[in-house]
Amino acid sequence: MPPTTGVRMSLLQTEEPYFRIGEGKISGWISVILGALSVLGVLCFHFPDFLTTPQLRAAYTVDEMRTLLGAGMIFSAAFGVVTFALNRHKLMGAIGISLTLLAMWGGGASVQVGPRYAAPGYVGLDWFILDLLLSAMIFIFLEKLFPHIREQAILRPDWWHDSRYFLLNHLLIGVYAFAATMFAPTFFSWAINADLQHFVSSLPWVVQFVMAIVLADLVEYAIHRTMHEVKFFWPIHAVHHSVEHMDWIAGSRLHFLEPLVTRTLVLIPAFILGIAKEPLTVYIIFAGFQAGLIHSNIRWDLGPLKYVLCSPRYHHWHHSSDDEAIDKNYVAHLPAIDWVFGTFYLPKASTAWPRKYGTIGIPLPKGIVRQFFYPFQEQAKKIRPGTAKKPAA
Ligand SMILES: [Zn+2]
Ligand SMILES: [Zn+2]
After folding, report:
1. Residue 310: nearest ligand to its CA?
2. What is the Å distance from ligand 1's center to 64 Cα?
3. Could you give the dihedral angle defined by the CA atoms of residues 22, 26, 30 and 33, in that order, rounded to the nearest 10 degrees?
4. Looking at residues 153-160, what average pLDDT do you find?
5. Are 69 and 7 within 8 A, CB to CB?
6. In the structure, what pLDDT confidence band is assigned to residue 88 with cuts at 50, 70 and 90?
7. Range of the domain at 109
8. Do residues 318 and 183 share a domain?
9. Residue 380 has what DSSP assignment?
């Protein structure tokens, strides 16, 4: 039996809703989601200093966001009407249209930017809206076009659970950015050499971009392997490994402390070497896209490039609970690093995918709050590191 058959059977969604054209469910969901995002977008206009990300504000204009908001409202209303016309799931159509009306009541596409405050902090609501729109469009399209598990529904089990992680991780971008920008200058300024920084920043930006990937992935490797092999850290990372259904949003399931530590530490080498802002920004965009891609339900193996770049199949094996793949494939970008340190695992056949995903033994609790407290509980200490996914003997 080929390995994929077992996966397909075990992950078959028998009770989950599927989207079929003509039912009104697709249009209903699009209407509700775009309506909700429109309301949130209007709120961003009213309270920009509390709800939007300063770094992102520098990358877009108010007019561009107004145009996007207007388009979101038009499509939300149009899909709501279509849902009614199809005469099914009318409640979703009604909710979508109501949300659009609420966004209009809040000012709609002509909403003015609210008064400015010296806010003590912010949540990245604009980052959530924009990344959700872009990621959903790209990855749902690719997952439907090149599915690994064809039967897996978009609304697979735990989709709502992981969507809340997606929301939380985006809202907290200010906390992560604050930690990252404070930590390196505070603790690593001693390591800066002006001549070296001048040399690095004068290199072609492609070279600096590649340097950023290699150095960040080396740090990522060290952090990731530590989390797997040091007993104290494993329960924090086990939250990420509790995912049993892989798709683009599954990678968002991360204990609050994990992105806090990872994002703070991965860019330290770039800070010390003085890699320029542009290649560093391109690296951050690349890393964000690849994080979605490698968790996605896309059957891409990347052909001969699979030894150069981390593919969905490569990272799916990291999430496998099959014995042979446990504690393997730690990198986020470059499998060569795993190969050098002896943790590379990728069966030759491109059809060889994991049989099952998730932690082994004592299951993790469900829910963001319970999973937040899980690493500090007595039960978590019963899981030993090394072959960390197995319960203590
Ligand atoms: Zn891991
Ligand atoms: Zn992962």
Report:
1. 2
2. 38
3. 150
4. 90
5. no
6. confident
7. 19-121
8. yes
9. G
* Same domain for 231 and 111: no
C-alpha 251 to ligand 2 mean position (Å)? 5
Cα(120) to centroid of ligand 1, in Å? 34
> Would you say 38 and 103 are in contact if contact means Cβ atoms under 8 Å apart?
yes
CA of 193 to the centre of ligand 2 (A): 35
Q: What is the pLDDT of residues 40-53, one digit of tens each?
A: 999 999 999 999 99
Q: Could you give the CA distance from residue 294 to residue 383 in angstroms, rounded to a whole number?
A: 26
Q: Which ligand is nearest to the CA of 227?
A: 1
**What pLDDT does residue 23 have?**
67
Residues 115 and 191 in one domain: no
Say how many Å lie between the CA of residue 156 and the centre of ligand 2.
Answer: 17
Q: Which of 88, 121, 154 is the last residue of a domain?
A: 121
pLDDT bracket for residue 17 (50, 70, 90): low
Q: Which of 121, 154, 184 is the last residue of a domain?
A: 121
Does 351 fall in a domain?
yes
Mean pLDDT rounded to a whole number for the chain:
89
The domain tally of the chain equals 2
| In contact, 389 and 241? CB cutoff 8 Å | yes
**Residue 165 placed within a domain:** no
CA of 365 to the centre of ligand 1 (A): 18
CA of 224 relative to ligand 1 center, distance in Å: 6
CA 139 – ligand 1 centroid, Å: 22
